[in-house]
Amino acid sequence: MTVGFSIAMPQKRSAYQGGVLPDIPVRRSGRSVILAFGGDSEGTVLRAAAGSLAVMAWGAFVLWQWRAEGCGLWFAVACVVPPVIGGYAHYIRSSWRATFFGEAQLTVDHWPLRLGEEVTVRFRRRLRRDIDMTVDAAVECSEEVEIGDSETSSTKSQRRFAIPLDTSALRLTPHWAQAEWTFTLPPDRPPSFAVRYNAIVWRVSVTFQAPEWRANAPAIFPLLVLPETVT
After folding, report:
1. Domain boundaries, the chain
2. Order of strands, edge to edge, in the sheet holding 27-29?
3. 70 φ, ψ to 5°?
4. 9-61 pLDDT tens trace
5. Which residues are CB-neighbours of 128 under 8 A, at least 6 positions away?
6. CATH of 27-39+102-226 given 3.40.1050.10, 2.60.40.640, 1.20.1260.10, 1.10.1660.10
7. Is the pTM of this model over 0.70?
8. Do the Cβ atoms of 183 and 118 come closer than 8 Å?
9. pLDDT (tens digit, 9 = 90+) per residue, 110-151?
């Protein structure tokens, strides 16, 4: 007599199984939660510097190939100059922003949020230097679609709805920019949603723009918005 048996091997669960809500890291403080945004830190500047060095290395390789293979000078220059200038400009831009704007945080009075309810948020961002600037702030709802396969994929985003926030409420001190906003999430909009190739993204976006270089320094905080509760 032959006895057969099988062993059920554990299956690796997909990150998209078991729900359609985005996983947003938060730090709880009582009933409120705190969302963090790192800003243009020293790590950002180092990554920009590494990218610039990689571009310059590519330029040196192209010039070496020009000397070794005898390709046209203008072809070599066209391959080298634009990426080198672009990489260096990106490094300078990141370094400049990091000297002005630091980390930011958004405190939300309760979590998760629901469509149709009133929400109060408190924003603050560290300012490393005192400069003249303009600020735009809004609560946004966007649709995101991932197109292509794993090697050539790209994400397309389209903003579907926005609630402008009054930036005149922003208080500037020597080291901080702070504001408190209260808004109502409309009940007739879609809630947060995230599956493999599609997402509905809610967020608070606070963008600083300094006049010297016209370089935007956004602070973006994703929100978890659930459907309206039916009573």
Report:
1. 27-39+102-226, 44-98
2. 27-29, 32-37, 101-108, 118-127, 176-184, 171-172
3. 75, 30
4. 333 333 334 478 888 989 998 888 999 887 554 444 445 555 556 666 666 66
5. 99, 100, 101, 102, 175
6. 2.60.40.640
7. no
8. yes
9. 999 999 999 999 999 988 666 667 889 999 999 999 887 767
